[in-house]
Specification:
Length: about 260
């Protein structure tokens, strides 16, 4: 039986920009960073790890035909959009904007602290959908040494696809119009965790919890499919049919890990 193969995407090799108000890393080609070897993977198009200074942010701008979700790591993120949604998101919150035929929004640091969040885009399967907005909350406690499904395809089991009004409405994963599932864990030292995969591709990313670092990654350390990854690192996963991905924390601190199952 074939084994899962992991191809590292090291933090040191990601695109990087320091705009003063924004410090960002790009896993895939984005803005002025263009790397034809890292354009997308399955439906996954963007993974930006952003740190936005207090009282600044992304002003109102428009998107269409993308699924855009934000995973808040630290601080508070203020969202406003052309559908009338205004919300402040904190650690544990995930926001998903299904841009569909078009939406305008702004994302800014709320309050007197910077915000650290992951901005993730995926490509929807159907086009020309009406725009929608969803938020969910997942506590640190439920992520301890367990995979929590935070985003899943709209037709997947257990997805409440019609609840979107108000703050953190509905339970379970936010519904995405792309063939992907996003899992998150807080994996403690010496612990390991497996996840059954449905797709033939996956992607794993280790969140940079210990701070902004332009150089070689440090902080939390995990092992996946024989590869060692540190904070900011990721890996493309080639997954044989019906295989399990095993993540092991081999470092000296808690690792916040994101896993995408790309169906």
């Amino acid at each position: 039986m074939s084994e899962i193969k992991a191809i590292p995407r090291l933090s040191l090799d990601r695109g990087h920009a320091d705009h003063g108000w924004l410090k960002t890393f790009h896993t895939f080609s984005f803005a002025t960073f263009q790397d034809f070897g890292h354009e997308r993977y399955g439906a996954l198009r963007v993974i930006n790890e952003d740190r936005v200074a207090a009282h600044t942010g992304f002003g109102t701008h428009s998107h269409r035909e993308f699924e855009i979700f934000s995973y808040v790591v630290e601080g508070e993120l203020e969202h406003k959009d052309s559908m009338g949604n205004t919300e402040v998101l904190k650690r544990g919150d995930i926001q998903l904007t299904s841009a569909g035929m078009g939406i305008s929004h702004s994302e800014k640091a709320h309050g007197d602290r910077p915000v650290h969040f992951l901005q993730i885009w995926s490509l929807p399967s159907p086009s020309r959908l009406p725009p929608k907005y969803f938020t969910r909350h997942f506590s640190d406690a439920e992520k301890q040494d367990a995979w929590v499904r935070v985003v899943a395809n709209v037709d997947a089991e257990g997805v409440q696809k019609d609840l979107r009004e108000g703050s953190k409405q509905g339970e379970g994963p936010a519904p995405v119009q792309s063939p992907l599932t996003m899992y998150v864990t807080l994996l403690n030292q010496g612990k390991s965790l497996s996840q059954a995969m449905k797709g033939s591709k996956g992607y794993v990313h280790v969140v940079m919890r210990s701070g902004y670092n332009e150089g070689a990654a440090n902080g939390a350390t995990i092992r996946v499919a024989g590869q060692t990854l540190r904070e900011g690192d990721g890996a493309y996963l080639h997954v044989p049919f019906a295989s399990d991905v095993m993540i092991e924390n081999i470092g000296d601190r808690v690792a916040e890990v994101i896993l995408f199952d790309l169906e």
